[in-house]
Automatic annotation (TrEMBL):
Residues 316-386 form the THUMP-like domain. This is THUMP-like domain-containing protein. InterPro entries: SAM-dependent_MTases_sf, Thump-like. It holds the Pfam family Thump_like. It comes from Planomonospora venezuelensis. PANTHER family: S-ADENOSYLMETHIONINE-DEPENDENT METHYLTRANSFERASE RELATED, TRIMETHYLGUANOSINE SYNTHASE.
Length: 391
């Protein structure tokens, strides 16, 4: 979809085409084209059907608002899901003037406006900026949002209470994990942060620690057990701790306990605990071990073991039934003996190819079990556990 095709969707004709397209979602695509073509030309038909399909897909991230919003395929993929954007926006005082330096289709800017901020946004891509503008209007926030097509470098962070930036982490060659390859590039982002009173940066959860600016707080956020992002808070927005893990949708937060040293290690107990990924990324495994009264199996690996069944939102618990030095033959025999056909395989510190192992195990029973592959010291182990329980 180009900018002209998108603009047509915003006209009265375009809105009618979109309404008609929404009724065809999930049905036969050829019949949908035939139906729309009775009233609309080929360009509008194609744009409306594409947009209706994107809206349908976007419900997972944006809920009911998706039916009113506009998307590009890339913009939808890169947009922050509503619950995560709302969590971040709540930390910014209502009434703040925020610069969104690379707004995409507006997932974050909409959350900032919902939280009571006014937002001046830019995006380098004209179509994406037009979609963000249309989204602010469609949700009734047009008077508190301005969107320009411009490079982030044109934003003067000193003119705002808060600088927000969610740089692009995808290049023509795919997703990048290297902050130096972000767009805007990391040095440009740091220059902007240095000029801002306060800043909030959304970055990939795997950001190397050495990239986190001194004095900033880094928060790792998981949503329904999956780590979504790291957030760097600077200036007045940085909290009193340097690291934090937050689980959404509950909003539970974990911070370093200054009294705790490194987690101890010890033999496999009756239970195995797997910490939430946000706690692992935030280097808070010792804190989770303390919560469950546990110890690590290996000092380098984030599996905790303990003797009591403790319930915590910060870890999934498994009951350990058997610990085997890893060997395909022994594992297959042990699982067959237990009648295990439905096996979840988890691993940390193991190079085993899980899909290959699953095939090689050739399981056929009716029981469900979890196999945890790990190493203790330099020896590989398989732990046969009862199926995973998350709290
Ligand atoms: C990850 S997306 C932002 C997603 C947005 N926060 C949301 O929730 O919808 C990053 C955006 O940065 C834009 N961008 C990349 N380089 C830029 C630059 N130098 N200046 C302004 N925008 C840029 C891209 O066009 C892309 O839309």
């Amino acid at each position: 979809m180009d900018l002209d095709a998108f603009r047509r969707l915003l006209t009265p004709d375009g809105r009618r085409a979109l309404e008609a397209a929404a009724e065809t979602v999930g049905g036969d695509p050829v019949a949908a084209v035939t139906r729309l073509r009775k009233t609309f030309d080929a360009g509008l038909t194609s744009a409306a059907l594409t947009q209706a399909a994107l809206r349908h897909r976007a419900r997972e991230k944006f809920g009911a608002d998706a039916a009113l919003m506009y998307f590009t395929p890339d913009g939808l993929e890169q947009a922050t899901r509503r619950e995560v954007a709302d969590h971040r926006a709540r930390r910014i005082a209502p009434g703040s003037r925020v610069a969104d330096a690379c707004c995409g289709i507006g997932g974050d800017l909409l959350a900032l406006v919902r939280a009571g901020c006014t937002v001046e946004a830019v995006d380098a891509d004209p179509l994406t900026a037009a979609v963000a503008r249309a989204n602010a209007d469609a949700l009734g926030f047009g008077d508190r949002v301005s969107v320009r097509t411009a490079d982030a470098a044109t934003v003067d962070p000193a003119a705002f209470d808060v600088l927000f930036a969610d740089p692009a982490r995808r290049s023509a060659r795919g997703r990048t994990f290297d902050p130096m390859a972000y767009s805007p590039a990391w040095p440009e982002i740091l220059r902007m942060v240095a000029g801002a009173e306060s800043a909030c940066l959304k970055v990939a959860p795997g950001i190397p620690y050495e990239f986190i600016p001194a004095g900033a707080e880094a928060e790792w956020v998981s949503y329904r057990g999956e780590v979504k992002e790291a957030v760097i808070w600077s200036g007045a927005l940085a909290g009193p701790v340097e690291r934090r893990a937050t689980m959404l949708p509950a909003g539970t937060t974990l911070t370093p306990d200054p009294e705790l040293g490194r987690a101890g290690t010890g033999p496999v107990g009756r239970y195995l605990y797997e910490p939430d990924g946000a706690a692992i990324r935030a280097h808070l495994v010792a804190e989770v071990a303390a919560l469950v009264g546990g110890r690590l199996l290996d000092p380098q690996i984030a599996y905790i073991t303990g003797d009591a069944p403790v319930e915590t939102p910060w870890a999934s618990r498994y009951e350990v039934h058997e610990v085997l030095p890893f060997s395909l033959k022994r594992l297959r025999a042990a699982l067959r003996e237990r009648g295990a056909g439905n096996v979840t395989i988890k691993k940390r510190g193991s190079a085993v190819d899980v899909e290959r192992l699953r095939k090689d195990l050739r399981l056929s029973g009716d029981k469900s079990l979890t196999v945890v592959l790990t190493r203790i010291g330099d020896r590989p182990f398989a732990l046969i556990c009862s199926s995973h329980q998350a709290f």
